[in-house]
Amino acid sequence: MAERHPFYFNGSSTAFSLRKMTDTNLASLRYQLRVAYAAVLNANGNGRLYTGGSNNVGQAHSTEYTYAQNQQNRNWNTGDGEDWPGYPSLGSTTRSTTTFTQTRNNETFPSDANLRDYGWLYWQGSTTSFNMRVISAEQDFVDTLLTDTIQEAYNGDEVGTYRISTGSPGGGWTSKGAVFTNTIYSNNSQTTWNLYLKTSASDPAGENPVGYNGGFKRRDRSSGGSLVQTLLLPMLHRRVANNGALNYSINGSGTGRGTMTDTRYNSSSTNQWFTSNIYYRSRTPSGGQSNNASYELKVRTS
Amino acid sequence: MTEIDNASFPRGIIEALFIDEAATAVRISHYNKDVGEEGRELIQDVVQVDPESPMYQDLMKLTNLEEIDEDTIEHTKNRINEWQQFEAFQKSLSEEPTIQPPIEIDESDWRLDNILDTLTTDFTKEDLFALKLQVFESDVVKNSKDRETRSLIRKAKTPLDVLVHYQQMLEGSV
User: Fold this and answer.
1) Does A158 reside within a domain?
2) Domain span at residue A37?
3) A179, A152 in Cβ contact below 8 A?
4) How many A-B residue pairs are in contact by the CB < 8 A criterion?
């Protein structure tokens, strides 16, 4: 298939020409599609990332070393000295597990009537022999608009995608709440990571595509318009459901969107004491922190 | 053991606690297997406060946010106490007994020319949390059924916010 760039009206309402849109002219439409997709995610709709579902993304575990203690009764044999037990090893436990899930429901491709009523016209043919046609093939939408839209979400303005961070990544990011806490035995130095969704950035300049139903019509390119809502948004959801676009994983392929780190104390201290005719020895986590595991949120384009 | 009709927590839950001050996520302790089964252990899952999440929906069949809120405060208070006792025990094993010096309080923070800063900007998370604990331990808040104001206290971002909502409760109790 091929890129099918739309026409746009160049000029005023009384003196204009039809021109073919460039990728730059389409930038605003791509941005508005990302904004619309982000709004769906923000409203807990299809494509969203959350915790506590069926685990198609991955898990993050917070683990700790734990206090351990051995004890031994006094044997009353003064000839063999004191009856201390050996020092125990530190114990360990998984303090919490976070299970990430993404909804990836398929959606129906728009009907021919919707493609006609909300879609755009493109030029096909040579200079002297050509047709104006309504874009209708799914792969043409992919080649003309969706691939670039996904790429810009992936490593451009990131609108419509998530990050994991201990603080807000910046303007346009909305917190979706805490998802992971690294605990290290005591109550001190706990770090919490939140899930953030980017819902807006700067709208680049662009043009409105031209379609035809009962005459040439300028299509509204805004995120709430029929072009975006009825045609392009379902197609973007289809890329997510069927082609791996904007799919998330923990430590999988793609670009990183924040790393949750599970740390533990890297040393221990020992104690011993004698009480009620029992000898005790214990080991307590202490020292600095070292990394036990890293859980990086990754997003991919396909 | 009789399993309950709950996909995420078929054996019920042992405990559910918020993991962050803003109360946006919960850590739930529950058993993975029935009593007597091999490999039975206590596991802990984290889930966002998200009405669309299946695990959260299952959690809400067994408890509610108000209970989680109260249990979190109680749990934190107990953990701090236990930790302080444990540290004192550890210290007693390794150090000669000493006479504790009297606690010195930096009263400068509470002078009128500093108090506004202390209540609005110049405070630590620990200060804020300690104040919330103190307020939740007061009889007027403990006995109050005003969930909305309790929630506002829990979510307060500054000591001043905490005190404003505390004042509302005091006035409501008269």
Assistant:
1) yes
2) 7-300
3) no
4) 88
